[in-house]
Amino acid sequence: MSVQAQERNFDFIVKSLLAGGIAGMCSKTTVAPLDRIKILFQAHNSHYSNLGVFTGIKKIVQRESLLALYKGNGAQMVRVFPYAATQFTSFELYTQVFSKMLGSHNHLGKLLAGSSAGATAVLLTYPLDTIRARLAFQVTGDEAYSGIVHAATSIFRQDGNLATYEFIAKLFLVIRFSFTTQGRKRVLNITCAKSSRNTGGLVLLVPAKLMCGGLAGSIAQSFAYPMDVTRRRMQLAMMSPETKKFGMGMVKTLVLIYKENGVFRGLYRGMSINYLRAMPMVAVSFSVYELMKQALNLDTGLKF
User: Which positions carry the signal peptide feature in this UniProt record (predicted)?
Assistant: First the structure.
């Protein structure tokens, strides 16, 4: 590989990391209030367990404050920049790798690229997701952690969960990214507005990006949601003596959730919030990423 090719690859990776990180931060901040109430619902927080989505948000503001809707978002930003940056950039890399192996129009290659990108991002950032979940689960006046650093050191010292990677539970969630990517690419071929070499020859109008990204995300999350609930219960298992039973492993936790609360109030608890957040979150993520790609002239991939 020539020096020029190496420089182009380095420039591409840096710009792609930046575009992906910014896209992830924008999308997660957009839905941060819904994310917090979803965590409180999923883990059956005693202060908010019998409320609906909007009444729950209203009670958070009344009981705590308006800023409490964004509790844990600081840890989320620390996590989401490397997560989204790694996910988007590795997706670009894996797409080229699998395209060479299986062909550029092979759907299996695209599915493998999306799954591999999700797994790579999870591998690097899972501990931060645990920290963020525990901070978001806290209620004002009943805090166990004072901040990100205190949460990290306490979790590692008390139960070791910071170093425990529940790969199987989390890796099921990469289906979401794979479905989202597939759905988005299909709609691109139907609703493109004009050609551009920066996006593989196609550019969507912003409303079309919002629609196809949100729809694909909603469909994908419907399949992966029970594993999301399981992951969350395991992350928060050590928050109180009553919930320690949820830290016994993925399968046991999944079965226990079903036995105690059933399907709709257990495995799919908070799913309505997921639908509400899917459209703005996925849409903002992909829209910002595509706009960043155009602004940074990411019109060429990696050269091998």
Answer: none
